[in-house]
Write a structure and sequence with these properties.
Layout: E1 2-6, H1 11-22, E2 26-31, E3 46-49, H2 55-65, E4 69-72, H3 79-84, H4 86-106, E5 111-117, H5 141-160, E6 163-169, E7 171-173, H6 186-195, E8 201-203, E9 209-210, E10 212-214, H7 215-224, E11 232-236, E12 242-243, H8 244-255, E13 262-264, H9 279-285, H10 293-309
Parallel strand pairs: 1-2, 1-4, 2-3, 4-5, 5-6, 6-11, 7-10, 8-13
Antiparallel strand pairs: 9-12
Helix pairs in contact: 1-7, 2-4, 4-5, 6-8, 6-10, 8-10
This protein binds nicotinamide-adenine-dinucleotide.
The site of nicotinamide-adenine-dinucleotide has 27 residues, from α1, α4, β5 and β7.
Amino acid sequence: MRILVSGGAGFIGSHVVDAYVAAGHEVAVLDNLSTGREENVNRAAALHRVDLRDQPLVEKTVSTFRPEVVNHHAAQSEVPKSVADPAYDAQVNIVGGLNLLKACADHGVRKVIFSSTGGALYGEPDVVPADEDHPVRPLSPYGTSKLAFEQYLGTFRRTFGIDYTVLRYANIYGARQDFHAEEGRVIAIFASRMLEGKPVTIDGTGEQSRDMLHVGDVAMANLAALEQGSAGTFHVSTGIAVTVNDLFRKLALLTGYGLEPAHGPSRKGDVYRIALDNKRARQQLGWEPRVNLEEGLSLTVDYFREQVAQPRL
Ligand SMILES: NC(=O)c1ccc[n+]([C@@H]2O[C@H](COP(=O)([O-])OP(=O)(O)OC[C@H]3O[C@@H](n4cnc5c(N)ncnc54)[C@H](O)[C@@H]3O)[C@@H](O)[C@H]2O)c1
């Protein structure tokens, strides 16, 4: 199958590209390399260095490659950035996304698979784990832009007959996650700082919890969505809430880190406790997480150990 992966040079998108290539598909990547990296892109996939906001170039990429499926991972993906500059977030995630979707409608794309968020849609959930029917009430412009694009997918299916699958991700971690990220990516930050023997600061008490899923499992969900999950919305998650303090302890063990953590102020607008029910994905996508937390953390520490040994230029 011919598949265009937007954001295929980024953390998650590049693993999805690898899984598609390994399954024998013909893959091309659309990415402006704003946070993605050329060396993340699988050699078997052609890289089109295109910004989603550049409508004529997006159109040209789709009309030339003529994909059967478009897997849409390119995004402004940082919650704090969306708070600081909501218009930029909307330009990339809504207007840029629509440039791609319109090109799909104009050039016979059968299906769009969209990487949405579970963590930024529900606010503080009424029940944990929350399922996909939990009321949505995003706390950040990022959550709102992701939700808006989900709605557009429904509209384009009804009006132009393009199929879609929405995958609402939990907190994803693993190799290639931005090593220098300042915000959010708790495992990448803890692991890299511990390996360098640097102090680690936990926001607030550390008793806040998240649903942490390994990126290898996310790639498998994107593989399943090629043929399953028509017009559906699915949590891609573990269903388990793990505290930041737990993550600190497990990573300290794996890295041999002996320092005590510092505690900073809790982050404004942060959800306290969340996990996402994945029953629907198990039943309808035939997908389930296979990498448990211990295994996933160990794989991730191995990756960051190599990065620390060979720092990027
Ligand atoms: N990391 C997570 O835990 C998580 C959770 C929920 C949803 N998501 C979603 O998954 C997707 C991938 O996230 P990620 O963590 O891999 O982030 P990432 O920043 O590594 O990947 C985003 C990719 O999109 C590209 N991009 C950004 N703006 C672009 C533009 N204007 N035009 C073309 N390309 C552009 C970047 O260069 C990058 O390669 C995003 O849509 C994100 O919202 C991620």
